[in-house]
Amino acid sequence: MSGICRRLLAFFATAACSLACTGLAGADRGLEPGGTPLAVDGLVVQDLAHGTSAQQMAQSLVGGGVTISNVTYTGTNNSGGVFTDTGPGSVVGFNDGIVLGSGSVQTTASAKGVEGPNQSGHNTTINFSPGDADLNTLSGKTTFDAAVLQFDFVPQFSTVQFTYVFSSDEYNEFANTGFNDTFGFLINGQNCALVPGTSTPVSVNTINGGRPFGTNAQNPNLFRNNDLNDGGGSINTEMDGLTVPLTCTASVNAGVTNHLKLAIADATDTLYDSNVFIEAGSLVSSTQTATSLTVSPATGDFADATSVSAVLTKTSDSSPVAGKSVTLKLNGAESCTANTDATGTASCTITPGEAAGTYTLAGSFAGDTDFVASSGSATFVVTHEETALSYMGDTAAINGQPMTLSGKLTTDDPAAGTPLGGKVITFTVGSGAMAQTCTGTTSASGTASCPIASVAQTAGSVDLAASFAGDNFYLPASASSSVDVVAPTGAGAFVIGDNSAGSPTTGSAVYFWGSQWSKSNSLSGGPAPSAMKGFADSPVRITCGSTWATHPGDGSSLPAAIPNRIAVIVSGNISKSGSTISGTVVHVVIVNVAPGYSPAPGNVGTGTIVSTLC
Fold it and tell me: Do 472 and 549 belong to one domain?
């Protein structure tokens, strides 16, 4: 099967309705009904069928030191026009100018032009118009649907230059193949649309990201990917790939008439449109040296200071231009400025405030008395900022009673451990059908908390998780812990002295029941009554700060048996009044019970503190 057949099959397989959807433009479409541009924020185009003229297009290009005359346009009216980038400059790299294409340049009800968003990898408008003889010669192929703007001009000096961007829907699937649309800028018959520093014409084959993307790329530093199949689509244009802004520079005859021909066409077949954008006011003639600015792609986290750079060179021989001020701007917002060094490189830092995604990094050199202004652009990929989450809440709980879950969310900017406020944290105790969940929003200090009103878990060590789901700016984060869950004691609870509990301290051995309780427990408020054997009758729900009461000796309503882990009251002061012994709940701890307990005071209850409830 021939390459042409494969290309047609690929086109119709992915775009069976493409011709109907985009329209088959006639040889001269005239002013179409419903011709209001359909562009979203980004490119706004007005083609020759909707109010602009060839004279206006040519005149818009004129900058200092140039006058023009005898303007002509050849092609269909939908293939040429003027544009404005409302970004500004975020799509092609400069704010306004003209656009010529091999299909439709303006989106209308019947055809898709260059405006974004990118919705197709095979945008095609067939105009049924002829190609161009000069482009046939330049490409060595038969051309179709040519759009040609040409005029005479008189330059003040012996050089001229202008800035342009080539784009095509033949990227990336037809890079490095025999299918390349063609364009040329012929100044007195010589093409100046060349890969910088070479005599090679700019085309899909000479500037690309490779085919497959990332493989055998040609001058990839000059290419911007927008192919939906290769991670593109963030550049707000229908085209699947673009060059960075390039400069056409040529020697001319000063003070006399010269001729400029700007032309683009489909080559080999009429499928897959290409376009060329030329910057308004960039056609200049001066004694200044032409420059080229190449911006390097960059990647950085949201809110992270990120190094960006660009290289300023002479267009004629690519030698560096030192000591010049270059400004780099991300997404039309954050910017920095630096002077070029001996290698022509200007480096500075930008802190992105954008959500994670791909944006345009635009560079500009304003020019001076010796050097012509130039600009360039590349991609800046903003990545999610890293986060960290730590758990800070309760690690012990009693079934049927509340517990508080809390955590702290931080990021590493401007320093490690910086609190991150306003983010939702989800806390989960247990798993499966027994999972209990609550959410809290972090404060300015990065902390969030929420309550579980009544713990309902299997007694023992239960998994606990905290999570931040992430958002457009920050990566997700999680933390895990465990909670010691004990069964409620029913009526009453055992008591230990605060000094014996060690403030309390995990690992402390404690004596919570027995005839020697008052001798075995030390309290900060002084000795306990000798009648206190260690069990408090009154608390049904143990909470810190509450009080308890009991009866002396073994008259208490002791449980006949206790589980392996129990909640125990910590008291600092115990007193006796009449037949009532009472105290205050200073802490509640979880105790791992040692063997040997029974309700008789002679059979002591001892154990080890494993965690603290409050």
Answer: no
Measured CA to CA in angstroms, residue 408 lies from 155, 458, 475 at distances of 67, 27, 15
> pLDDT (tens digit, 9 = 90+) per residue, 555-607?
567 888 888 888 899 999 999 998 899 999 999 999 999 998 988 878 899 99
Per-residue confidence (pLDDT) for residue 28, from 0 to 100:
31
Cβ partners under 8 Å of residue 570, min gap 6? 495, 496, 497, 498, 501, 504, 585, 586, 587, 588, 589
Question: Does residue 158 share a domain with residue 133?
Answer: yes
Alpha-carbon gap, residue 420 to 447, rounded angstroms: 8
| Sign of torsion over alpha carbons 133, 138, 141, 144 | negative
DSSP letter, residue 130: B
Do 525 and 421 share a structural domain? no
Question: Which two tokens mark 367?
Answer: 């020019």
Domain's final residue, options 351, 383, 415: 383
Does residue 539 belong to any structural domain of this protein?
yes
* Those residues with Cβ within 8 angstroms of residue 401's Cβ, 6 or more apart along the chain or in another chain: 454, 455, 488, 541, 542, 543
Other C-beta atoms closer than 10 Å to the C-beta of 273 total: 32
221 phi/psi in degrees, rounded to 5:
-65, -15
Calculate what percentage of the chain has a pLDDT beyond 70. Answer: 92
Judgement on whether residues 160 and 308 belong to the same structural domain of the protein: no
Query: If DSSP codes are grouped into helix, strand and coil, which group holds residue 523?
Result: coil
Count: domains in the chain? 4
If asked whether residues 10 and 83 sit together in one domain, one would say yes
* Sequence-distant (≥ 6) Cβ neighbours of residue 33 within 8 angstroms: 109
By the 8 A CB rule, do 434 and 458 touch?
Answer: yes
CA–CA separation, 252 and 188 (whole Å): 8
pLDDT at 139 over 80: yes
State the pLDDT at residue 31: 31
Does 98 reside within a domain? Answer: yes
Same domain, residue pair 394 and 352: no
Residue 345: which pLDDT band, with cuts at 50, 70 and 90?
Answer: very high
Confidence of residue 393 (pLDDT cuts 50, 70, 90): very high
Work out the pLDDT band at 554, boundaries 50, 70, 90.
low
Can you read off the two tokens belonging to residue 530? 């000798």
pLDDT in tens, 260-300: 999 999 988 888 999 999 999 999 998 888 888 999 999 99
- DSSP sequence for 152-211: EEEESSSEEEEEEEEEETTTTTTTTSS---EEEEEETTEE--B-TTSSPBP-TTTS-STT
| pLDDT level of residue 14 (50, 70, 90 thresholds) | very low
| Residue 285 in domain | no
Partners of 608 in the beta sheet?
509, 592
Would the pLDDT of 2 be above 70? no
Give SS3 for 221: helix
Amino acid identity for residue 80 in this structure:
G
Considering the domain boundaries, does residue 286 fall inside one?
no
Three-class SS state of 61: helix
Q: What residues make up the domain containing 599?
A: 493-612
| Distance between CA atoms of residues 483 and 153, nearest Å | 83
Query: Can you tell me the mean pLDDT for 362-389?
Result: 90
110 and 198 both lie in a single domain: yes
The 3-class SS string of 264-300 reads EEEECCCCCCEEEEEECCCEECCCCECEEEEECCEEE
Q: Please tell me the predicted confidence (pLDDT) of residue 269.
A: 86
